[in-house]
Amino acid sequence: MLSRREFIAKGTGTVVTMAAAAGTGLLAGCGNNIESHPPTVNSFHDLAGPRSLRAHARRHGLVYGSAVVIPVVEKNTDFDSLLSEQCGILVPSNELKWVALRPSRDEFNFGPPDSLYDFTQRNHMLMRGHTLCWHESVPGWIRKIDNKDEIKQIFVDHITNVCKHYAGKLQSWDVVNEAIDPAAKLPGGLRKSFWYDNLGPDYIDLAFHAARAADPNVKLTYNDYGVEGDNDGDAEKRRLILEMVKGMKSRGVPIDAVGIQSHLNAGQKYGQGVADYIEAFHQLGLEVYLTELDVNDDATVSNDVAERDAIIAKTYTEFLGAALPNPAVKLVLTWDISDRFTWLNGIGSHRKKQPNRSQRPLPFDVDFKPKDCFYALRDSFDRHKRA
Ligand code: 9MR
Q1: Would residue 33 count as lying in a domain?
Q2: Residue 13: inside a domain
Q3: Ligand 1 centroid to residue 257 C-alpha, Å
Q4: Which of 343, 345, 347, 362, when mutated, tests ligand 1's pocket best, judged by the most ligand atoms within 8 Å of its CB?
Q5: pTM
Q6: What's the number of CA atoms in the CB half-sphere (13 Å) around residue 305?
Q7: CATH number of the structural domain spanning residue 276
């Protein structure tokens, strides 16, 4: 079956590839229609191979992928196919965090993430690691230790052991996640956390040095949220992170990439702020990864699914239109790929303004049918060719 876009291209009498069509402007003016009125597909398998997000991203010098909750992958063979058809990279949502990986001081629960790694290898995908240090994932047993030197030793040993376990296997590691919180009013905008309180501000450098010593080639990433929008709060966080990263570079800390989580909100403005932020890292010689892309439309008033999906897709298009032109951007990962598994409908959704309405933040709906934002993503990959 032809997609609407392929059908339009054929209708001109010339068979053109989608990439070529985007490049020649043959489809100019159709873009919005295509995104908001996607072709009917009988099953997600119709979007495999050259029609996949994976293939469109690769054709334009990008890698597309998704976060996954590992038990879900293990139980659902249909979902395995969706992932392997659409994704060039996977990241476990939770299973490499301290709380999951370190049930006790003596245990490393590598089973689940290792099984995901095997899945990526069978399907010729990359895998990234998330995360070696995060204020939200601190096991109870380590909180009970009141000797700072001992905590420091456990911290370094953890990073060393985990990075050595995966040495040479992962594309990148989120070494430190979400270390900046302007509201804490600490020097450098650092977040008040268990790690900050016990190890002091140097814990960030320490983490990157330990990771590099254990795995010389994996891309070491600093990952954070709240930096995407054209508003004062996000601008201030961008400024603080950029200052921190410049400081790290000047001290010779081995950082290779910056992650922009990209948890977006429908209707918010995205543009110059994130474009300038990415360019600043490009100038520093760093790569940039969009690590956790999704669109929260809880504030959208309309309950009409088609209207909501169109607004969500527009948010994807606007944000990616600002981010993707920069060749520093190498990875785009959505935080899950199907609305069936999104964190926005899970625990924590008590914060929802619309408690009786499910969120629709991701490229595939709960039945694994492609949505407007699937096409918005694919078209964005086509539009913004990497250098
Ligand atoms: O999606 C993750 C959810 O399943 C977990 O319960 C939660 C706590 O571990 O973390 C969620 O993932 C977060 C990620 O690790 C960091 N950025 C924000 C993500 C969404 O909350």
Answers
A1: no
A2: no
A3: 20
A4: 343
A5: 0.90
A6: 6
A7: 3.20.20.80
